[in-house]
Every structure is written in C-alpha cells, then in structure tokens.
Amino acid sequence: MKKIAVVGSGVMGRGIAYVSALSGFNVHVNDIHSEALDKAKDYIQKELNKSTDRGFIQQKDAEQAMHQMTFSTDVKECVQDADLVIEAALEKMDVKVKVFKELDELCPESTILATNTSTMSPTEIGAQTSRPDKVIAMHFFNPVHKMKLIELIKGLDTSEQTVQTVKEVGEQLNKETVEVNEFPGFVTSRMNCLIGNEAMNLLMEGVASARDIDKAMKLGLNHPMGPLELADLVGLDTRLRNMEYLHQTLGEKYRPCPLLSKYVKAGKLGRKTGSGFYQYE
Ligand code: NAD
Question: Is 7 near ligand 1, meaning CB less than 6 Å away?
C-alpha cells in the first residue's frame, strides 16, 4: 500500500489526507468542488505549520507531506492508480452508491474501496460494485489527527484479506482499530448520536443552557467534550443525516430532535459555518 486516494475533501477527507501523507503515503485528494479542495489544502498547510511550531513534527517532514499530496476535481486522475480509496463524501446513500459505481470502473481490480460512513451499510455500498470482497467501512473520527480510533465494519462479502490489509494501513497511520459487525450506526455513532440528540432535546425543552448541558456532561460524567460542542464540530448537517438514517433503520428512538432540523434549515451548521449551538470566530 503506497497510494491512497481520498474522495471528498470536507471535514473528514482533509483530515484523512493529512494523516495519510504524514504517515508516508502518496495521497490524491478529490472533490467535486474546487473551492473545497482549496480549503482542504489551506487547512492541511495550517495544521502542518501548527504541528511544526509546537515541535510535534520536523519542518522537513511537513514539507515532505505536502509534497506527497495532489488535489484535483478529476476523479479518474486521483483514483486510477490508487491501492486504497477512502470515500468521505456526503452521508447520503445515493451519493455513496454513485461514487462507488464510478470508483469500481476507474480503479484497478486490486484496489480496496473504503467508505468513511458514520452509519451506513458497507454491504449495500459494496453490492453496487463488482468487488464486494474489497469494500469495507473505515470509520475515522474527528479531528482525524487527534483521534486514535478507526472502527472497521465488514460487509457481508468483505474478505478477511481486505480486513487485514486495512488494519495494517490503520497501524501505519498510528491508529487503533476495532472490528464491528455491520449494523446501522455501528458501535460509536449509534451511542453518540443518541447522547447528542438527548442533549438537543434538553436544550429545546429549556432544561438547561447549551453551556450547562455540556459542562454537566464533562464534569459530571467525565466526557472530554460536551455533546453539543461535539455536534458543532461534526457539522449539524452531517449529524442530521446520521440521525435520519438511524431513525429510518433503527426506529423511533432515533427521531432527530426538531431543534437540530431547525438549525440546519437556518444554515447554522456548527463550526464550519461559524454558528451552531455556539458562535465561532
Ligand atoms: P463535509 O460536508 O464536510 O464534506 C463532504 C465533501 O464531499 C464536500 O467537500 C463535498 O463537496 C464532497 N462531495 C460531495 N459529493 C461528492 C462526490 N460525488 N465526489 C467527491 N466529493 C464529493 O462532510 P464530512 O463531515 O467530511 O463527512 C464525510 C463523511 O464522513 C460522511 O459520510 C460522514 O458521515 C462521515 N463522518 C463524519 C464525521 C464528522 O465528524 N464530520 C466523523 C466520522 C465520519
């Protein structure tokens, strides 16, 4: 494994690209929007500068990482010689299906196709390709360079060899992995979405302020981040899509809080738009 292509350069794609390049992979980053690629490149450069300034990495490693990355809206150019493609596009099944059909046509037969979905079925995604044995979910966490885990979810036909190969990639990225059997929301999103949704219900019902709900969870229950600040970090549009999928597949317990839908309608998507449950510079 030498070449990784990342499809979708938003919050997660840019982080996966950053960590992969720093770990020595050649990384081709693709997005349908050139502005998203420009933002991703800018974000990665800033993160590399921060890490260099703080002495976490050396200047020459930062330069090498940047040198190992390309950014293009041409998906063929990005994926045609990739050993592994990691898709981090929108959390919508029709988008993922379209992307995977295209990847299946453009990539060499040996290429492993991974999705960074938070909730969805790698079996359903893999079934759209001629290589369901080489399709797997690699669920990274946000921010990718700080979070230690990758949750690996096997589809019905995912081969053991594919699991082993992506585990080794995980080790090269200096991450821990857990293997999870396929079920909507896996382990982490199923739990986390429910906690976040309940925090939003508490806020909507006027039980406490956003700041006090988060403070209570951090100081009383030892969560490193409050559920509302975490939702702002994830992106409220992405969180709403996660909830809608879980509601559809797991039932009533996962009905998205109306306040979440209202924020998304208002374009208040959290950190990425500067406003969500909190305001950002
Ligand atoms: P995002 O909205 O920040 O970025 C998505 C990017 O995908 C955008 O730049 C968009 O232009 C691009 N895109 C859309 N369609 C595309 C296509 N057909 N080809 C190429 N690029 C395309 O979303 P995100 O938060 O990075 O989430 C991406 C995926 O990662 C989702 O499946 C999400 O559930 C999952 N995820 C998100 C988080 C999180 O904290 N945000 C954590 C874990 C997993």
Answer: yes
Q: Which CATH number fits domain 3-181: 3.40.1190.20, 3.40.50.11460, 3.40.50.300, 3.40.50.720?
A: 3.40.50.720
Distance 221 CA to ligand 1 centre (A): 30
Mean pLDDT of the chain: 97
Query: In whole angstroms, what is the distance from residue 105 CA to residue 115 CA?
Result: 16
**At what angle are helices 188-204 and 258-265 packed, to 10 degrees?**
90
Ligand 1 mean position, distance from CA 184 (Å) = 18
Query: Tell me, what's the pLDDT at 281?
Result: 87
Kindly state the helix (H) or strand (E) to which residue 221 belongs, with its residue range. helix 221-221
The 10 Å Cβ neighbour count of residue 223 is 15
Three-class DSSP category at 183: coil
Please state the pTM of the whole predicted model: 0.95
